[in-house]
UniProtKB/TrEMBL annotation:
Residues 14-150 form the WH1 domain. PANTHER family: NUCLEAR RESPIRATORY FACTOR 1 (PTHR20338). Residues 162-180 have a biased composition (Basic residues). Residues 149-187 are annotated as: Disordered. This is WH1 domain-containing protein. It comes from the Eukaryota.
Length: 202
């Protein structure tokens, strides 16, 4: 992947008070179960190739794209949340998305293959095959650094719901005027270019 392609995807997901990290290579998404076993490196050649398993269900290839980590810091109007997205190369559109919490158990059992439990069904696994081993290591290190604190509200399943309940309880019984955003809540323009003149060639 080129630096321009990586920057395009990063720009697609970056917003005010949000941290974004983009994988440096294409990633292939598989879905399996806890009994799927580990894929054999020899079977990983070719886009969309189905990995062999040590037993149980096979891994099912889903799609490929650019893997993105999106951290909503919680410093703005959104709750603190950590998400992982498989974005379409060239557009940045979401192909697949899931949230990370303390039950995700993000692991790297092989140099180019990483796994995580799905948030809506923890008996199911997402398998992520990276096209480049060095990029896979960097991505795993980033995930590890973001999920290392078990007290982080982004890792707790009840963290966001608790915050919502407190807001509802505070506003119950009284009509509160919605607070308008300040200058600090609004992000600055992205990729702004001041055009003063246009020629025919433009």
């Amino acid at each position: 992947m080129t630096d321009q392609e990586i920057a395009q995807v990063e720009m697609f997901y970056r917003s005010h008070k949000t941290d974004v990290f983009v994988s440096q290579c294409i990633v292939y998404l598989y879905v399996g179960s806890s009994a799927s076993g580990l894929p054999q490196p020899s079977s990983m050649a070719g886009a969309g190739a189905l990995p062999d398993t040590a037993g149980g269900e096979n891994w099912t290839y889903m799609k490929s794209g650019v893997l993105v980590v999106v951290m909503d810091t919680g410093e703005s109007r959104r709750n603190r949340k950590l998400s992982i997205v498989l974005a379409e190369r060239g557009t940045g559109f979401v192909l697949w998305k899931d949230n990370l919490d303390h039950l995700t158990e993000y692991q790297a059992p092989q140099p180019c293959f990483q796994t995580m439990h799905l948030s809506n069904d923890h008996s199911k696994l997402a398998g992520l095959r990276f096209a480049d081993a060095a990029a896979a290591v960097i991505f795993h290190q980033k995930i590890s650094s973001l999920t290392s604190d078990p007290q982080d509200s982004a890792m707790r399943l009840s963290g966001n719901s608790k915050k919502s309940k407190e807001k509802k309880a505070k506003g119950k019984g009284s009509k509160q005027k919605q607070k308008l955003p300040t200058k600090a809540d609004i992000s600055s323009p992205c990729c702004f270019t001041h055009v003063t003149k246009l020629d025919r060639t433009d």
